[in-house]
Amino acid sequence: MPENSGSRSSRGRTPETDVIDFRAAEQLLNAGDPRGAVKLLDEVIAVHPENTAARLLRARAFFASAQLRPAELEFTIVLEREPDNAFAHFALARTYQRQSRPDQAKRHFRLAAALDPNPEYLKAARFDS
């Protein structure tokens, strides 16, 4: 890979650039700019498609910007790699819920609660119903 000469192209990226962009994307998402976060993460994932943390952050950013189909795809990819990721199950369930797909949402809410007894997950799972 060529050295980074200040270019933001995929070929001119360094591992440091990727970490900086990942952290900047976290900050953008926390500051209410999910579309800005997606733009940064697109570059990181283009170079590191196997990076599950970047995919999970991009899924959250898609969800926050109401891009529900891309969010669903990213959460699904994360769960293919980490089937025991309770947060990803919960977030995918919320994505399905926002798409008016209650049966799929319920399944993933329950998986999240089974993997992690987080009170929010347990409440969403509604095991009593």
TrEMBL record:
The keyword Repeat applies. The keyword Repeat applies. Pfam families: TPR_19, TPR_2. Keywords: Repeat, TPR repeat. InterPro entries: TPR-like_helical_dom_sf, TPR_2, TPR_rpt. TPR repeats lie at residues 86-119. This is Tetratricopeptide repeat protein. It comes from Streptomyces phyllanthi.
